[in-house]
What does this fold into?
Amino acid sequence: MNFSFRTICVVMPRDAQRYANPIWPACHARREVPQGGTPWPAAVRTSPRRGSRSHLAGQLLALIALTGFLTGTLAQESTGRKSTEESRKVALQVSQELTTQLLREMQLSGPVRSLLVCKYVCQEILSSQSRKTGWRVAAVSLKPRNSAVGMPDPWEQKVLADFSRRAANGEKAEALEFAETVTEPQGGYFRYARAMVVEPLCMACHGPREKLSDAVKAALAAHYPFDRATGFSVGQVYGIVSIKRDL
It folds into this structure.
């Protein structure tokens, strides 16, 4: 069945006949009022322009990209929290084991014997945790007792300086910790540090040098000829337990 354009117009509703006009597409594209002065119906005037599908597709792609970015960011934050919790647990365990060993030796034999705990037992505690976790676990200080194993690297120096400043400004020193992901020449690492704080039992070996006993001074000269770990007061940040993990 062949209908002419005029025949179709006849069967249209009366209001629609006014818009059965060959110039409609051009008028619509320019959003003009058609000849005769009658404006297009709202449904017609707001019809999507050509290319709106491409625009919608672009918005969809942007939304997908944003969703992927947010998902990745949340995953990284979750991983960071988990790494921090795991590292904190190890750092606390190191500090607790070292304090227990030092306190026991101090009570049994006095401060001179406790120096041997620092020299041998402390390193064994750190080595044991490193072997167990597969991470680098160390105890470092800006004023180390044994420079061969206690010197901080640049990242640790920055953290130690920050901890000392924050403790001096009144922050609770024993709660100070810091963690971040870093990129170094060797690769990417997760790094964590927790403050080691001078306690009263530490003062016999780490207090002002002029107040140390002659026996302690002699032991320091024998075991640590290049010792710098004196002159502290209770509550100061002595060093940090530092943990370095491959990403």
The first helix runs from residue 5 to 11. Residues 84-246 form one domain. Residues 1-34, 42-48 have pLDDT under 50 and may be disordered.
